[in-house]
Design goal:
Helix 4 runs antiparallel to helix 5 and helix 6 runs antiparallel to helix 9. The chain has eleven helices and four strands; from the N terminus they run αααααααββαββααα. The chain is about 60% helix and about 10% strand. The chain is mainly alpha-helical. The protein has a domain of about 130 residues.
Length: about 270
């Protein structure tokens, strides 16, 4: 949203620091905005959850005697705290990210859909006063269906074009740089844009300058399966890790930092060339 404001102000010859146009700057500002919102809004949000008695349900002695004994004192620990995290992420994304990019909308949609699935699970636990929540089969089915939609959007040109209205959002592309050696002359560097369909057929290995091999047909299908596996697996990995003691938070910090680093390096064509 702020990118649109910056472009609008530049029409009136306002001098806006060029750093705001860099994705690296906006990535840091987006993370900082979400963090500060969570820090300042967190205490009031948790207090409100206590007032509304929105607490975690513990497995009963009949269901699991050992777990009930270990965690019985943690009953009524506030749940649905993910709503605050989702809200902070969404606001931060709308403020700093490029809303013309298809990847931005995919990130937002994936976060919101899977977040709503988690909220529905917590709601059922609260409503029926048990720890079962949403049935595992239904949860997995929803995750697979949604991740399948994401895979089809990225890998099927007809679906990509159908969901683009007047060129908005822009069709997702990846940049590929090829170094062409020339005798007695400086190597020629060629940069070209690849559609996500073309990119899915290329197999890359870190530290190799180009694709190890380029496949067709079956490789696109394998890419589709990988997309479904990563989205569904990541969502369930967080669910399994997240316990009453907030175990997922520490794991997510480390994983998020590594993924952010990889995202930064792979999205910077000069750095990715190495």
């Amino acid at each position: 949203m702020l990118l649109f404001l910056i472009e609008y102000l530049q029409q009136f010859h306002w001098k806006i620091p060029a750093a705001f146009g860099y994705f690296s700057t906006r990535m840091i500002l987006a993370a900082g905005t979400a963090l500060l919102m969570t820090i300042f809004m967190g205490p009031r949000f948790i207090k409100k959850l206590y007032e509304l008695k929105i607490g975690q349900e513990i497995r009963s002695v009949e269901e699991c005697p050992l777990l009930a004994e270990l965690h019985g004192k943690k009953k009524d620990t506030p749940t649905m705290g993910g709503v605050l995290i989702l809200f902070s992420m969404a606001v931060s994304l709308f403020l700093w990210m490029d809303l013309r990019s298809a990847f931005t909308w995919l990130l937002l949609l994936t976060t919101v859909v899977l977040g709503c699935l988690g909220a529905a699970d917590d709601y059922l636990k609260l409503r029926y006063k048990n720890s079962k929540g949403l049935k595992a089969r239904k949860k997995i089915a929803c995750q697979v269906l949604f991740s399948g939609f994401v895979g089809l959007y990225l890998l099927c040109p007809s679906i990509t074009q159908a969901l683009s209205v007047m060129g908005y959002p822009r069709a997702p592309v990846a940049k590929e740089q090829t170094v062409v050696p020339r005798e007695g002359k400086r190597a020629l560097v060629e940069t070209k844009a690849l559609s996500t369909q073309q990119y899915a057929e290329r197999f890359y290995v870190p530290f190799f300058k180009g694709p190890v091999f380029v496949g067709e047909g079956v490789w696109r299908f394998l890419s589709f399966l990988l997309i479904v596996l990563v989205i569904t697996g990541s969502s369930n990995a967080v669910n399994l890790t997240d316990g009453l003691d907030g175990l997922a938070a520490g794991c997510l910090v480390m994983v998020s930092l590594v993924l952010a680093l990889f995202s930064f390096l792979s999205n910077h064509i000069d750095l990715a060339r190495y």
